[in-house]
Write a structure and sequence with these properties.
The structure holds 2 protein chains of 2 kinds. Chain A is 61% helix and 11% strand. Chain A is of the alpha/beta class. Among the domains of chain A are: 159 residues, ABC transporter transmembrane region fold; 217 residues, 3-Layer(aba) Sandwich (Rossmann fold). Chain B is elongated. The chains are: A alpha/beta, B alpha/beta.
Amino acid sequence: MRKLWIYLREYAGESVLAPLFKLLESLMDLLVPVIVAVIINDGVQRNDPGLIFRYFLLLIALAVLGMGFSFTAQWMAAKASVGFAAKLRQALFDHIQHLSYRELDTLGTDTLITRMTSDVNQVQNGVNLALRLLLRSPFIVFGAMIMAFTIDTQCALIFAAVIPVLSLVVFGIMLLSIPMFSRVQGLLDRLLGMTRENLTGVRVIRAFCKEKQEIGEFDRRNDLLTKMNERVGKLSALMNPATYLIINAAAVWLIRKGALQVSAGALRQGDVVALYNYMALIVVELVKLASLIITIDKSLACGRRIQSMLEVAPSMAYPLGTQAPSGAGECAVRFDHVSFSYSKSGDAALTDIDFSVRKGQTVGIIGGTGSGKSTLVQLISRFYDATEGKVLVDGADVRDYPEGALIRKIGVVPQKAVLFEGTIRENLRWGNEQATDEQLWAALETAQAAEVVRGKEGQLDAKVEQGGRNFSGGQRQRLTIARALVKQPEILILDDSASALDFATDLALRRAIASLPGNMTVFIVSQRTSSVRSADQILVLDDGVLAGAGTHGQLLSSCRVYQEIYYSQFPEEKPAGPDGASPREVPA
Amino acid sequence: MKTKKEQAVKGQSMKTLRKVLGVIGRYRLLLLLSVLLAAATVVLQLYVPILFGDAIDQIAESGVRFDALGGFLIRILILVVLSAAGTWAMNMINNRLAFRTVRDIRSRAIRQIQALPLSYLDSHSGGDIVQRIIADTDQLSDGLLLGFTQLFAGVVTIGVTLGFMFSKNAGITLAVLVLTPVSFLVARFIATRSYTMFSAQTATRGRQTALINELIGNQKVVKAFGHEEKASAQFREINEELKGYSQKAVFFSSLTNPSTRAVNNVIYAAVALIGAHRILSGGLTVGGLTVMLHYANQYMKPFNDISSVITELQNALACAARVFELIEAEPEKADSPAALVNRGGHIDIENVSFSYDKRKKLIEGFRFHAEPGMKTAIVGPTGCGKTTFINLLMRFYDVDRGDIRIDDQSVMDVSRASLRRNYGMVLQETWLKNGTVRENIAFGKPDASDDEIIRAAKEAHSWEFIRRMPDRLDTVITDDSLSQGQKQLLCITRVMLCLPPMLILDEATSSIDTRTEVQIQEAFDKLMRGRTSFIVAHRLSTIRGADQILVMKDGRIIEQGSHDELIARNGFYTKLYQSQFAGSAAEQA
């Protein structure tokens, strides 16, 4: 949590002044019983209406001053806490921007979003309350006791005895119920999870006629939650009656003691009234303090989570300077005995991958689920660093490119086709800020997406809703391909990004890309052999190992894995002979 | 003055309130007890200060009357103990009332979910329904039940306080009554000011959350396009905007307490002034003034409580309305008690028409037959109605016109459960329970032995990865512990274990690589042998072995026949099929 304070530094003044003004306000409150005592002792007993009126004006003045102090404090606290939260949120956002894929994988999107939204809000709330109230309650409790001591030491001792007892009860109940509350929360989360599960799985549940069993399980958990809730309820139900009992017993004791003191001539009647009033102040503040501490404790936990997020260091280092290494050589991409694993202890996702791709070549990458296809292409754009070996782009080690330089050369179409809220134009311009409408249309044509855009009202200005949900999966895929093409990249990577397209569109897309001018190197990741068979080079991956590399013809005659994949998709081409050496060509 | 709209809203609220009372009907006695206890404790707690005042009056400086004082103090102690006990009992009752009502509502809701037609569930977002069952229900009980007792206690407090005050001194009480509205005016003034800021804050925060979800949710894409700095700038803009609104909203809303406290302090001062003069004129004692001051101090509290409770109540009523909308939605039409008798699985689809949106046609004049044991493949472009057809087969939706008959029984005349038990279904979306592997596989057959489960797993090729899991069948599955392909394999195993007489496979193997798919295909072939089956797939290789292929387009069957027949026809199917090989065609061209 300590590291977060730097974001409060800009509001250091406010952060000191807010509690200070709050203390001034409480001081006004603390003075009231004494003034009433004076009114009774000196005004009433000595029959002095002038004095009563003067002290009445003083009470009014205290009320007005108190309000002024309080308003100032509230403004300072609001300014500081909200400003702090805004800075923190920005810092978190900026920090996330610098994390590499590896950290994003470990942290997980949901966590990141929770930190940025509810956690930061919780911290803002905590800081605001702490600035305003954390000092106020103890100040009033102890202030009341001190004021009591100034009135009468004997009676004040009752305060000294009662405050610890009350604190014990109030904080004891709180402390005991905190872990119970988190258990309740856990049970509630499970119930919520089950409700969600029942909704997402409604078809399966009905298909298997499991409605009754699901209801039974829900009821069981529902009862469990209710029982736990009632148990916590039993404890917190004690709070009010217990404090009420203690404070009134103390007041009875106080009056009794006060009576003795008055009778002994050590105290006056108005003073007894003042002491009684102070007693009433204490209990309200203690209860407030206890609930305040719970809120602050929660926001401290959130603060610690945010801090640990800010402490996650980006694992990727970049050379200084902005100069990209001079591209020399024939090779667009070369893998030099590359191995990679996602986590230190985990199994290798890629093992000893070695191949090179000339500029302008089209490379197909094929293999089963989890064979490492996506991993391989993600190493080209250095979304991850190879664990062993080297990845070279344009003849230079990817690790020698300054931040942002490598990504400028590469157009990536990720598996998950996402668009962002805005217009189609804004989305396409992610590839190139300065792209003209002609360039955008050209990219759309190539990506087979021009039809999609023409069909929308406003064409390039058509609205894209959040996540692109107003487009179908296939439409989104084509638009994300266009987005990458707008970049006019040297290397284009299609990571299984035609899976939602039908075969005819997929083919038209590949043809259009192949006929683009320039010398673009293209990587096509796919599970379909039809998508990669015309590639200049096909890399066959099997469980992270390069099982074969070559053209369709070469692989079909030499690579067992490729044969298996191919014949699983085109069984009627499987040659009758046992060796399967030469498949017949398929007529168009 | 109330507008018509406000009155309509009010009428709606009354209706909702009556429904809530209906739900808590079984706890009627508890509610009554709670209300009685609330009234009793309020009176006791308000009477105690009067006794304190009387006690203080015995401490005259001219001489303390210890006997009388002791009597008052003992009475105070007795009343305090009684009141504490009463409060405790009331708290316990309120807890029980609130928690059990929530439990009852949720229990009704989950039953409702199982009984609602899919048309309702498909057209409502799942998140929204969860929100109604969990958060809204909590809000309902907190706001409505506790709010109600608080409201009641508040009203009693105000009434009793005024009564006690009048009995002590009418003049001071009138003064307090005159000053009271000032506090309301101040609170109202602040509330309207902060409302505008709050709605601006809420709107901006909503936009910011959406932006966070979108950008952070797709951080990898942001990085892939080197879009980080622009994203930061975009975020900064909205973040600064939010800061402005938030600072003001937080400030304004935090003014209510100090302002009402200030007004309260002024009232307190006025009571002190008038009270002191009354003592001088002999109309009041010092103890009496203490009582009045005590009341003046506490007097505003119930008003503040009531105003916050009323906001809470309105909120809770809105939540209650949402909850009732869900639990009172029309459930599925009553089921026929007759069970489907399977006599081989002869299926007739007779002139079936259906659409989700009745203004837009979807499936039109569908008709075909499937002989027992026949494999029927359904192909066609996305959105042509393939999945809808499955919804009709399973009776997730009912046909608009026409009939589906299984072994000469209309599906409308048999119970849904008996119909569904005859089908094994593997869907495109893989759904697994949050539980162990065993629970998931044995979902349709809870009494299956481990041997049976393992045999099914082996046949569906899921045993290979289950075997490697830390606790094998007892491994708890979480959302991201399995790959999409593995989840699909488990779903297949689930059906493999039940061996129902008919099968529906919707894109069942689309996320599994083709090598594994071949293995699954073998398993499926085994499973499909002798079973009437429907397969929906993008991949033509999956359906090549089907007995008949239905080619769908725009809700109609445009071609029908075996693979060879359809190829020979050289129509839509042929085009679809050949595009698979076009890669090599391009090479040759």
